[in-house]
Design goal:
The structure is a single chain. The chain is mainly alpha-helical and 357 residues long. Helices cover 42% and strands 9% of the residues. A hairpin with a 4-residue loop joins β6 (228-229) and β7. The longest helix is centred in the middle third of the chain and has 20 residues, at 138-157. The model is unreliable at 37-42 and 333-343 (pLDDT under 50).
């Protein structure tokens, strides 16, 4: 019997195979192969989604034709990017560290303008444009690219889409530069004097504590009363974004009255600094409802992290040894071998340093 000849299918269109044996629908239509990466983002394998089976080659071809017009699972065509992320994160965040979770959340915020767009309609240039417009630095964009890969792996697994556009996302032009880098805008002496004139205001007290300790805002808001040791005049950072961030921070003499006041206050949680509800401050709540209005009221324009730059600058101006500055700030920076062996500095050394400010 002469073998039937069928038309050649275009590249990337999919395939049609004929199953052996007696079958009512022997022709199987399969979507184009997609490369599915492993969790380590290093290896993977090609996989094809079976679209359906048909009695004849022509009917299988029609299945492929319809699929290529809308290349995704029709029952999930309206699943948004945000819905995919929410479902993925619910599973993934159970197996990663808190710092990794924060990193993925920061990376996902880059796509805020695309949250409500159906996932299957996103393309590589959407992800590239979001990255370019975000102003994020290279480390964040690296996590961002990993997130995109993982979202596609998840979406393909649950047949939300079958085309993995993450492989085409190219962020190489952003690799060796920091598009979000801004000139360090430290608080001036005049601005610090202005803050002291308003020292009775809670938000100003928090700002001053940050300037006179170099502590990150997230670290400060996470402190509990058990982390504070007034007798030693220090507090302990046990949870930080870096290993070097886990450290002992001195409480400057000027800051001691604020800490004593914070310690006396009672709320629903045992955090050192409480919000109006008596619970832990959330970063975004603090930034939007407290930090920003205070900056506007005092005629200043600073981000919370600039208190940390200010502390480092002031310590350097007062000729404090670099290794002492790095221990206070919890930043290894460009530590040489000699500096790295100093795993501990006496509380008095740190306190004397911070009291020079």
């Amino acid at each position: 019997m002469k073998k039937n000849k069928y038309r050649r299918l275009p590249n990337g269109f999919g395939t049609i195979s004929h199953l052996s044996g007696k079958r009512r629908k022997p022709y199987v239509a399969k979507a184009p192969a997609v490369y599915i990466i492993d969790e380590d983002n290093q290896t993977g394998k090609y996989s094809r989604l079976i679209i359906g089976s048909a009695e004849t080659w022509e009917k299988a071809y029609q299945l492929l034709l319809k699929y290529n017009e809308t290349p995704y699972n029709l029952s999930k065509k309206n699943t948004t990017l945000k819905q995919v992320y929410d479902a993925w994160s619910k599973e993934h965040f159970e197996i990663v560290s808190d710092s990794s979770e924060k990193g993925y959340k920061a990376a996902f915020s880059i796509l805020e303008n695309y949250y409500d767009k159906p996932f299957c309609k996103l393309r590589a240039f959407d992800f590239e444009n979001a990255a370019k417009e975000s102003g994020k630095n290279a480390p964040t964009l690296k996590r961002y690219k990993t997130l995109i890969n993982m979202l596609y792996k998840y979406a393909i697994k649950y047949e939300i889409t079958t085309v993995d556009f993450s492989q085409a996302v190219d962020l190489s032009s952003l690799r060796n530069r920091n598009p979000n880098k801004k000139k360090k805008n430290i608080f001036t002496k005049k601005e610090i004097d202005t803050l002291w004139k308003s020292k009775d205001k809670r938000t100003v007290q928090i700002i001053l504590v940050m300037i006179y300790s170099g502590v990150r805002i997230e670290e400060l808001l996470s402190l509990t009363k058990e982390d504070v040791f007034l007798d030693r005049q220090v507090f302990e950072i046990g949870d930080s974004k870096t290993e070097n961030g886990i450290r002992t921070v001195p409480i400057a003499d000027k800051m001691l009255p604020f800490f004593k006041q914070f310690m006396k206050e009672k709320g629903k949680t045992n955090h050192l600094i409480l919000n109006a509800k008596g619970t832990k401050f959330g970063y975004h709540n603090f930034r939007k409802n407290y930090w920003n209005p205070t900056m506007e009221e005092l005629g200043m324009n600073h981000r919370p992290h600039e208190t940390r730059h200010t502390c480092a600058s002031l310590l350097a101006d007062h000729k404090i040894e670099p290794r002492t500055i790095k221990k206070i700030l919890g930043h290894s920076g460009a530590m040489d071998l000699t500096e790295k062996v100093y795993t501990h500095l006496d509380d008095k050394v740190l306190l004397d340093a911070i009291n020079t400010l």
